[in-house]
Amino acid sequence: MKKKALCKRPSGGVSGCITKTLLVVKLIIILLTVAALHVSAGEIRGIIKDESGKPLAGANVMNKNMNITVVTDSSGFFSINAFAGDVLIITFVGYQRSEYKIMQGDGIINITLQRSDISMEKVTVIAVGYGTLNKKEVTSAITHLSAKDLNQFAGNAVLSSMQGKVAGLSITNTAPADPNSSPSIQLRGVSSRSAGLGPLYVINGIAGANIDNLNQNDIESIDVLKGGAASAIYGTRGSNGVIIITTKNGNNQPKAFYDGYAGIDLPANQIKVLSRDQFVAHNRGVDYGANTNWFDAVSRNYGYQHKHTVQFSGGNSKTNYILSFDYRDAKGLDLRSTKKEYGGRLNLNHSSANNLYSVAVNIAPRYLNFNNASYNAFNQGLTLNPTLPVKDTTDPAKYYYINTGFTGSYNPAEELKTVLSGGEGKYLDWSASFKLNILKNLYTQVTLGQQTYDFFDFGFTPTYNTGAIYGNSGRNSASRAYNKSDQKSFEWIGNYSLNVKQHSFKLLGGYSYNYTNNSGLNAGNQNFPSDVLTYNNLGSGVSNLPLPTNGGSGDFTFRGLGSYKNDAKLIAFFGRLNYDFDKKYYLSASLRREGSSKFGFANKWGYFPAASVGWVISKEQFFPALPWLDELKLRADYGETGNQDFGSYLSLDTYSGYGYYLFNGTNYQVWGPSQNTNYDLRWEKAQNFNAGLDFELFNSKLTGSFNYYVRTNKDLLGYYFVSTPPNIQGTTFANVGTMKNSGAEIQLKGTVVSNKDFSYTVSFAGATNKNEFVSFSNNNYQGQNYSDMAYMPSPGSPGPAQRLQEGKRIGSFYMLRSAGIDATGRLLVYDKNGKIIPGNRATTDDRQFVGNGLPQFTASLGNTFTYKNLDLSVYLRGAFGYDLFNTVAFYVGTPVTQSGANVLTAAYGNGKYAALTNAETYSTLSDYFLEKGDFLKIDNITLGYNFKSPIRQLEGGRFYVTGRNLYTFTKYTTGDPEAISVNGLTPGITASLSYYPSTIQLIAGFQLKF
Amino acid sequence: MLLFSFGCTKLDETVYDRIVSQNFLQTKDDVIRDFLRSFEHGYWSIQGGNLYYAQELPTDELMTPNREGDWFDGGIYQRIHYHTWTLQDDFTSDMWNALFSGISMAVNSLEDIQAIDPAKFNLTEADKADFIAELRTLRAWYNLRAFDLFRHIPLVTKIKGETVMPPQATPQETFNFIEKELLESIPGLPTRQSLGLYSIGRLTKGAAAALLVRLYLNAKVYTGQDKFAECAAICQDIINGKYGDYALESTWDAPFDYNNAQSPEVMFGFPSTLAQTHHHYTGGMLWWMGPHQAQNFFGFTNFGNMNTRFALQPGRDVDSVEYSFTLGKPFIKFQKYPDDLRLKKYKNLGNSKREGMFLYGYLPYYSNSNQLVKSNRGYTIFARDQVGWFRDLAPGKVLADKESNMNHADDNSGVWPAKYPIYPGDDPNTIASSFVEIRLAEVYYSLAECKYRAGDKAGAAVLLNEVRKRNYPGGSSSLYKTDGSQLTDQEMLDEWGREFLVEGRRRIDMIRWGVFNTGTWWDKQSDADDHTKIYHIGQTVKNSSPQLQQNDGYK
Lengths: 1010, 555
What we know:
Chain A is mostly beta strands. Chain A has 8 helices and 54 strands. In chain A, helix 5 runs antiparallel to helix 6 (412-418).
């Protein structure tokens, strides 16, 4: 391998190469001899050239100290005012930024700029928590995405824009077209039984940030800390990974930016049910005479949204700002859901003239109001008799009353049109930090942060709602709920760095204090004098009506008052050492000692150690010189992390109020122990091992990394069955059980073609996940070695569909094994002895493990083409090697579905579900309804056109169109396979018919830069 | 930094919306709230934790058949009906946990109250003693139920700080424990008169004595030792007023009516209010004892739909021919004495009055008698003493499908009992009946049984007629002849069934009369053995307490 002859000198986080080694030596000598002499301002002249010696015209040369900028002329020449000791910053498109410090006695300066190939020598700054590292220094599994790596996306949750981009990070949203839905995000498999499964979000250094208070346009970069060594610095919140989001900062060029788009959502992968005529032809039920497509009756023709962002940024090297504002207005596919939001973000950074201190302020407010979708309305859309009318046949002002059909039938069009459900919300996140540079290589920083949100929800059902007329004696009802959450944090860190010869040290120490407080209030009432009041005058209702404590259908929980408040505290001390020798051997070690108020008093504090090593083996002399290999780094890390994402007060001996009991004529609320005390309650502990390698090949045209991980989650939190007596409750919230995830992840990025007019780059991310529920007991808790999951709803009460069992993969379907269909259309199954029996004769003993709903492999492939000003990206994404339970087919996909209910079109004809013609085995839960879930999606295609402005006032802009979820290749028969979540504890099954339709999203937008 | 940090390492939780036990008891009301915890749970446990159906569904009285897909529930109700439930059927874990958490709550309250100085709470030592005696009696009530269902149970007298379940006691030890607890508590308990209007819901001397009646009457089943003599003695004492003033009501429905909290027949019950607590009017019991739309028949629609969970087993086949077996056929057992006032179809008469105890035939809406209750599947319901897929079949027409079993019922199948009134929504006394756990009639019947067993049929007949006379018009020939000549084992058991229909005691009565496992009734053959006379300890309970010995016969 050819060793590079150029030096790399890091300066201020940016390493640039100034000149050749000899020149550096010469400069150092000059510096040592003359640096102390005073010099006066004068004209400094120089020439900027490229590596081949060709002069570069039009390069920017800025005197950083005096804040003046000049441009090189056609021969690469410039002249600028400067003192000796001033620093020049030279920038030119396509080349790396360079800095030059002027020395006393400099004549005409020769500066050579290095071409900035896509990855060559480009320094990517990785956020690692409480600091950043140069990508080369990273020794644990971290995936870095910059803003341009994100997909164009119109929707609620910005993280959907990175769906599939990070190997091992599973982002699923089963209802992306619902303007209020958020995806579930899960890293490297399920980690817990009852504690939270989502990662810790860190926005601009503030841990536990509100991820919904973020505009995609404000994102500068996202770093996903996957390895335990990286996330261990976040201690009890690190087990599910850490996602660090850095928002944009201003720079020294005043700029304005606008981005606006409009998008529509059109139904896709629709679940097809019988039309009116088919329903009648198959004699499915009473013909009420109407012709209703219930899907259409609850849907808009398309969902629609538009969003606008404006950003203003500017400043200088000492003070810079960016101010961003966005507005979004979205309507979902169903008739009711909407979301309107506007938010802003201000980032302000200021340093003192002598760099002694700097301050940074970040403020992000957001307001939104919304109306909720009804997923059950689409359930009704599937199952309602299509001969039922939407409106009353005698009085078209009224809706038709529906209470027959499948379970819990009602008129969903009426629900969406007459029942109010929604609310408004506010977010306010701010942080401020003060950094004091005590020495050149020692600073300390204090950061204060607060993240708050509050939501004020409403609900109202009017008197004329047929459900109210027939189910609630014609009473209207309304409710309001106010929920607020507030999190304050204080952090104090110190950072010291030292370079001695080839040794480089970075030392971090810190203290963190975090206080969370949640509280809320809810109230409901019914029988208001007028529907006009809706939910705005709860006091005018009649509140002495019975509480609906009768279970079953027809519950309406409108009378009542409630409030709650709880809090939690986290305190931590932490330290980290980063060391490298000769940029060849890297070592990082950290330790966090953290305590949480939620833990039992015997177990308040825990230690979370981590260590990682990296070895740039390609720098070794013994490493063969391979012309195609630029760099190869081997990594290994180990870290222990925790999970404390569960409710407050679970360890304590608390008393709560229960029902009421008459005593001496007075109704007393009885009070008693509300839970079994567990003073030993503590964090879930994860032991994370990760080994990986990073490589750059073919002159850095292909870069990538490979990771293999094993994560063992111990002391899983959850309710565990305990002896009654002496326990009052049958379950105790306790730490029991072990789960293990392992997998391999590969992340590749390559430049296939790169020339002046055309480029083609490819990125690939792939991940496998192996999961095992290792044990379900410990010394204190000995119980069953399994837990039944995914209980299927009525009718028929088919029981649980999955089992979490020792030695098994999560998402294991545990049900009867089908053995075909007999002559009478009955489903046959194998009993536990392997004998074939009718499904309805099988017992719970005959159930077996028959499949798994957790994908073995997930992958994505991104292709980006640019041709002159055009760019095109085509993004494919898929999941493979898993089963899905077809809940819809199970309940309404066979001809023996109860009469009066509509069924899938596949219930008749030659399909496998159409063969189940005997009602006896209707409720038999078997693998007959398992289907392959594998899919490949054309997930995103974006075509953009970038233009330079013809007018001076406008710098440039971009038009783009995007299509999302354009096509799905799958064998799954009923709807979009992605509508069934593969995250969480029951991957591969939705134990409900409620859903939100899958959509194709089409977006058109443009951006302008001023 | 370190100095600063030491001040910020406190991690105690500030508890806002709950109370920790150390500072819970502050006032007299707090003590009362603590005292009442296990009473309220006890009320819930009448129907919660599967405890109601565990006493009814394996008997010849109630059924929960598969109604065209409803109430199949993995076949559990059929296995209970056929006495073929297995260790895998975990409904018994809920039963266990419901009872033993009640016991643990009672002991927890007992320990709390034993520890207080009553003066600090404006209570007297007598109040404290009363609370303690009542909690011990309540624990005995729970223990007796657990003993009845599981037989080999742990006896708990301390729970604070305990993590290990005591070993299971032998039946004799449990019997002795319950007997001793009741006998020791009786002197400290209040009487019905001393509590005045508010005696229901409190454990009085009379209630404790009645629990002894239950214990003694079934002693042979529980321990192998018969205690009929002791039972008879205490019954006579109760009737004689030794434990308080009680009297039989003069109408059959008075013990169940809205004002039954003041009924002299009620010895222990749970006070109900529409606005607050009415556990027996919920889905585990009364509310799911009718067709889905039957709330319109009653005219009470505040609770939404009713449900078809519990109905009387049929007395007739699909062609309306009476079945030949002798057990079961509960409705026909009533029809044996056709002038029984209870046989009328239930009807709300207005002004907090009703007549009849059963729902059958067409069920017109209370608000509009032209509108008939329909099945959720669309057909109009004609409820009948038969099981099958009748659907739209008009009454009297012949059904081709002769199948009638637990897996083949529709919403017409079965007569529905309505022992407690459900008055219309605009009636001031709707959902106001308290739940009657023990009534004086039980003491009469128990004493009658003791006399019958002792050969005194005449004495038995007289006692039974004391209660029965309110069920028939004056001078009815339906009353037993005073020589007791009509009384047989079967008639005794039938009469227990009539008087205590759906009151949650059919199982033990059938066991005591020796027919629970040997008898046959609708869709039920006799059992190979009698291991199902007690329930197994459910897998969930067994899993968390592996030391528990499983009951014999379960594998």
